[in-house]
Design goal:
Layout (H helix, E strand, L loop, with lengths): L1 H16 L3 H38 L2 H6 L11
Length: about 80
């Protein structure tokens, strides 16, 4: 049993130290891709929200052309 346990720890030690620079670079690249994906997804949500707001405001153009008063807060006099 002792030989088996000892061999297990030797194998684990070798596995940990066997990583090469290429493996480390690949792991770093994957982390960077995940980070950029999250940032891009968040930015796309912001853009979608802005487009929706523009869509809501486009409906006001025909009323403005007809000369109707602008909807919203009343101006302070």
């Amino acid at each position: 049993m002792w030989k088996l346990t000892k061999q297990y720890w030797i194998d684990v030690w070798n596995l940990l130290w066997s990583k090469t620079n290429i493996d480390e670079k690949a792991i770093a690249t994957v982390k960077e891709i995940k980070k950029r994906y999250k940032l891009t997804a968040k930015e796309l949500q912001d853009v979608a929200k802005a487009i929706k707001e523009v869509g809501d405001q486009i409906g006001d153009i025909p009323d403005a052309i007809k000369g109707k008063a602008r909807a919203g807060r009343k101006t302070k006099k």
